[in-house]
Amino acid sequence: MGIVSLTPAMKQYVEIKEKHKDCILFYRMGDFYEMFFEDAVTAARVLEITLTSRDRNKEEGVPMCGFPWHAASAYITRLIDSGYKVAICEQVEDPKEAKGVVKREVVRIITPGLVIDDDQLSAKQNNFLAGITIKDATVGLAFVDISTGDFRAIQSTDLDFFFNELAALDIREILLPEELRGSPFLKQLASLKHDCLINYLAADYFDADACARLMEDTFTSVPFNIRQASHAAVVSATGAALRYIGDTQQSRISHIRTMEWHQTGNYLSLDDNAKRNLELFVTIQELKKRGSLFHVLDETVTAMGGRRLRWWLHYPLIDPRKINDRLGAVEEIRDRHLLREELRKQLGAVYDLQRLGSRIAMKAANAPDLVALKTSLQQIPAIKERLRELESPLLQSLTTGLDEMRELADLIAKAIADTPGPMLHDGGLIREGYDAALDELITIMRDGKKWIVALEDQERKRTGINSLKVGFNSVFGYYFEVTRTNTHLVPADYVRKQTLVNAERYITDELKKHEDTVLHAEDKRKAREFQLFTEIRDRIGAQIDRIQSTAARIADLDALTALAEVAERYNYCRPIVDNADRIDIRDGRHPVVERMALAEGFVPNDTCLDMTGSRCMIITGPNMAGKSTYIRQVALIVLMAQMGSFVPAASAQIGVADKIFTRVGASDSLARGQSTFMVEMTEVADILNHATPKSLILLDEVGRGTSTFDGVSIAWAVLEHIHDAPNLGARCLFATHYHQLMDMTRTKDGVKNYHVAVKEWGDQIIFLRKIVDGGTNRSYGIQVAKLAGVPDAVIQRAREILENLETGEFDDVGMPKIAQPKKDAAQKNPGQLQLFASPDEMILRDLQDLDVLNMTPLDALNRIGEWKKLLK
Fold first, then answer.
1. CA distances from 322 to 222, 316, 393, 478, 800 (A)
2. Pairing mode, if any, of strands 495-499 and 503-507?
3. Reported pTM
4. pLDDT digits (tens, 9 = 90+) for 613-627
């Protein structure tokens, strides 16, 4: 359809859409948002709303769909979650005053990485937008959550390190230079962040000089030299993100004031495999929060505290001093039970100050947001009062940093109504008594409406029409309504305005005069309230630094209080954390598994790892006995201790680890064309190439994806390398079914054997779940198979084969004993002897074992006859 055939409103739509081709355009028409053409087709499908047509009677009808403007939030969320951008196009002039088409403009673009409304966000999870560039083999990464104001950046020449960090972050949208489209880097990025929206921007977005200027205009402090050539990659990534935010939000982002350098060297490193295998945030199989470590620890009562706890779990500390500062704060709050209850109650009344502050600074906050800010600020004095009773240095520093901002709370209390509506142009926002001009308009409205009510009573008496009433609608304004049966009583000064089925509507000069007074007062009141509200919001927005600073301290306090609550509720102990190499855990428990309803209860276990006699623990035992649970619980206890949490144990001494590596479970990576064994070996290679003497390594069933001899060989060599390599020598828990590895203790001083205790009862086994000294040469695989419900015939046959293997390799005619069937089975199927070896192999093995010098000619003929039968 050519543009000349469109109506003026549709021409305007097409012109605006042309500037926002990559967005679904929400075009405001009265009380509705409308979508047209391709946007309508897409939105109708994604939002499951009716697709209709404008000018449907014409052959070239325009596809369209829409919904009431007040329902936009839910629809925006669905589009954003599906990876689309949404451009909000509003009417920016009063339709009553418009000459021709109402002026409209895009006031904001919402993308997956630029969401600020609470109902479109996960409360306890960040929502990052990331800019990424590559310059001279250096990768720059800048990531920002505009809903909180957090802005961090990092650069690296190590791609493995970069992708590991990227995997840890809650990134929803990525900005890349157009030149990276289709590159190998992009393919690896897309496989890692397949659920992210990726935008390709023009090269000028990443121009280093322009980006440096934008950073200087935006940030009050930057943790590196912007103009230094060595930082060109991170400067370009940062500037691109800032410019993209400015282009989409149509305003300066005043709440983004500072930039932090993402100092990963200060934290315990956990790659994506470790976080997944340890189920820190979601379970492996169902990808649910319930059943994860975060679910157990998250007793926070504010959204800010939940995000802070999540960050601590992503990035545990490695500095014992900082760790013990957190532990000291957790201990003091844990020990003060009544104070902790009061503190949690007060914190629970604090709204999300970070996101409230951001919306206020971005001029997106409404009146209920300001009331929520007031309610939150009113809790600060009581929180500080509680904290003054505590002596922990960390808690004292938090107390000092809490800003009560009484003048802001008082301003909101004085100016904003107690229960204002969310709409800024509907009135009801400002409290009476705050502004004299507004109060005068309210009085005029109130008195005018009272006068109209009195007029209704006056006219009933004057006309004798008892059913006469005063009504109002937006088309005619105020009117008198008289039923048809009483029209003969209508006075001569009544002017008929509208005829209904059973009534007539009239106006008078006197009624119109007062109508003009009331309606003008109401319009002026709404305009005055909006003006006052924006002034108040701007005054509060100017204090965004104070709001953000206090919000950060509330987040810390809530996270610490949550850890204290968990410590008392689940009987955790305070660990001793130092720089020693020893990990000594007494009666350690798995924090997640022990919370499950286990019929047998959870069995605690000890762990002792050091750099001398017990550097590497080889743990043998049957499947289902608890080897994997045990090695995971050791890693989780170390991780919890280093994030500043008490741990599930009777006592624990934790020598800090710089990295935790896991090789647990087996899975194919079909998308990358990798088999289970290739995935396993790739992960093992990563561990061996990146672990250090301070690392903690968890290996579960290394080598099981290939043949037994290959697997044993690889497992032995891997463990030997971890023990011997000069750049390694790390603490390691090695769970395996390969009993041959137990012999390593004879040659390696730092290797020690352990096994999971099992009690045998007839042909049954009972898992005792206890880790004890020494190895075991039994895997109890057949008993486990029986427990799993494998048919008895298979179980019996497996026992026979096991016995054959344990008593010797060949029988007296040179046949492999593993293949010897039961006699009745051999009679029914004499060919079963060939199950495990070919006839050629059997004959060759038989020849090797022949004692030719002691054979008689008859023996030789008989043996040749047997070989001939075998070949047939």
1. 24, 10, 11, 71, 60
2. antiparallel
3. 0.84
4. 889 999 988 777 678
